[in-house]
From TrEMBL, chains A, B:
Its EC number is 4.2.3.4. GO terms for molecular function: 3-dehydroquinate synthase activity; metal ion binding; nucleotide binding. It is an enzyme of class 4 (lyase). Residues 61-172 form the 3-dehydroquinate synthase N-terminal domain. One of its GO terms (cellular component) is cytoplasm. This is 3-dehydroquinate synthase. Coiled coil: none annotated. InterPro entries: Dehydroquinate_synthase, DHQ_synth_AroB, DHQ_synth_fam, DHQS/DOIS_N, DHQS_C. PANTHER family: 3-DEHYDROQUINATE SYNTHASE.
């Protein structure tokens, strides 16, 4: 698989660990920091360790695993450690982990001393196909997802499917939702391929194709002015459901589980407002419900979900702005949806 | 005085309040937020109020005045208020205040939803001649100055010398230090002019010239790769003294008072290492000591000052990197100074 060229940096697939340390050596960094969480510290760091010990010096910074820790408070902890370790402007941060580590680590690096270099080594399927391409960094404040962040490109991204074999099935399914989305918005053939594949461990080729699609969209519109909004399909409702679950459930939904619900709701809205045929709506709903467990969205939580949607970055002036599907493989941006339409879409999901 | 063109934005001098609200109207913003502190809320906001009430809607956010409050914790407070007020990506933030408000407000705006528009209305001499030109935003963590921040340009800057008449003399002197620096690094004629002027309230023309100098330097090197380091003259020692005073003194030094000390120390280093003549060293020391009160740097605090210098953003790999003067009106970047040389420069200041 060829290296993919993104906005000023490369995404490496083959021999990526070797490539990572070639990059580190050539960069002449004053210090190297590896950010992990308690899972990747155990399962993924060992793959890097033989190379790390050959460096003059490096430091490990570990955060607690879990979406609920992608907060500004954890950023403060990491900034303080960088200060204590004497990190200067020529330091490098290697973010080794899932979306929490890559989003938070990217934000910390992009603001420490007004920006130091960082690279992403995504270790979950979700972070490989989503968080590590596109230059978005972000953390949560008050439970509002990614409300604080920057647009900053990493210096490189290193993909390695060796990390995926240790992932629980639920984590794989979380990443798969974004892959399904890439097919739905841009590539009907890819959607068909996914439908027919064994998705218990997606192949390296399927992952590669997903990164290609996301990268192409992002390159066309790095600051989310127009076409990049395609990637928001499923995310208006999905993000609200995800935040709601994080605040209310003992065992909250994963990102992908929430986006799966969002894609069904927004496919329903697509059928009402953007031309998606009823046949294709049925197909989307049936593929997704087959893969993901049913979640109960209680009727009395709908108002809270709507309030969360109003907080979404893409919404202006009290209106809810959705990306919808014209058909499988093609999207339509800037569809304004009313409160009632959004409730109806949630009712459609509840009735499946 | 003509409008100065900076990196993609304008710095208005004449009729700047009128220009500000012309800008607001043309921007078609979803909401306008005015960030003040408890001083500017009383002394400066009234100048904006007649125009503000004509807007459809605006909200005030007030932070507590004082350098010690330019912290990440106050940022969190402002982010939460923006969330509560429902600020979306098309909101505008007007930062009305001194460097604390413009630096912190710029950082908050540049990271809220990955960046909303902001404009600077600097109300102190220091923020007019320094903080509002150059696109640096920043806040402190653990007492380390500006350790977190971004390079983000405001959409415009509005200067108004009407704000300065309410400033205490000590605040005016704080800004004056940066003006003296602009002369020392780039313009010997301007230094001579300053020497001969009544500096109890610097004229609008002197302020304008200072902004011109800073703007020219910044435009040449927006990301501080080389020539912009000129602006760090006096700031290696000065920042350390400022932080030390903030942590240890009941009535801490102002920024300019600390930079005044830094400029004397670094003029001494310039004489040792960069070619500044002894005559010119004497001239710099005598002009500055005439304007600023003497501060006692205790011998046993020197080690702590050195540790603070090591934390400075410009220092790599344990070496202290100073911008020095070749002569009055010309600078030399990237001079590495040893611990002993820095102690000697502090001893020179102490012996004046």
């Amino acid at each position: 698989m060829d290296t993919i060229q993104s906005d000023g940096y490369s995404i490496f697939f083959d021999d990526s660990i070797t490539e990572l340390f070639k990059f580190v050596e050539q960069g002449n960094y004053s210090k190297v920091f590896v950010l992990t969480d308690d899972n990747t510290g155990i399962h993924c760091l060992p793959l890097l360790q033989p190379h790390l010990v050959k460096l003059n010096s490096y430091d490990l910074i570990e955060i607690t695993a879990g979406e609920e820790n992608k907060t500004i408070d954890f950023c403060i902890g990491v900034w303080k450690m960088l200060i204590d370790f004497g990190a200067d402007r020529k330091a490098l941060m290697i973010n080794l982990g899932g979306g929490v580590v890559t989003d938070l680590g990217g934000f910390v690096a992009s603001t420490y001393k007004r920006g130091i270099d960082f690279v992403q080594v995504p270790t979950t399927l979700l972070s490989q196909v989503d968080a590590s391409v596109g230059g978005k960094t972000g953390v949560d404040v008050d439970g509002i997802k990614n409300i604080i962040g920057t647009f900053t490109q990493p210096k490189a991204v290193f993909m390695n499917d060796g990390f995926l074999s240790t992932l629980p099935q639920r984590q794989l399914l979380s990443g798969l939702a974004e892959m399904l989305k890439h097919g739905l918005i841009c590539d009907a053939d890819y959607w068909d391929e996914l439908k027919e594949s064994d998705l218990s461990l997606p192949s390296a080729e399927l992952i590669y194709r997903s990164v290609e699609i996301k990268n192409a969209v992002v390159l066309e519109d790095p600051h989310e002015k127009n076409i990049r909004k395609a990637l928001n399909f499923g995310h208006t409702v999905g993000h609200a459901v995800e935040t709601y679950s994080l605040l209310n459930d003992d065992d909250p939904l994963t990102h992908g589980e929430a986006i799966a619900i969002g894609m069904i709701c927004e496919a329903w809205l697509s059928n009402k407002k953007a031309g998606l045929s009823t046949n294709q709506l049925d197909e989307v709903a049936s593929v997704i419900t087959r893969l993901y467990p049913k979640y109960e969205v209680k009727a009395d939580s709908q108002a809270e979900l709507f309030k969360l949607m109003l907080n979404d970055k893409k919404n202006f002036d009290g209106q809810i702005n959705c990306t919808l599907l014209k058909r499988i493989g093609d999207f339509s941006i800037d569809n304004l949806c009313t409160e009632v339409e959004l409730y109806d879409s949630l009712n459609y999901y509840a009735g499946l």
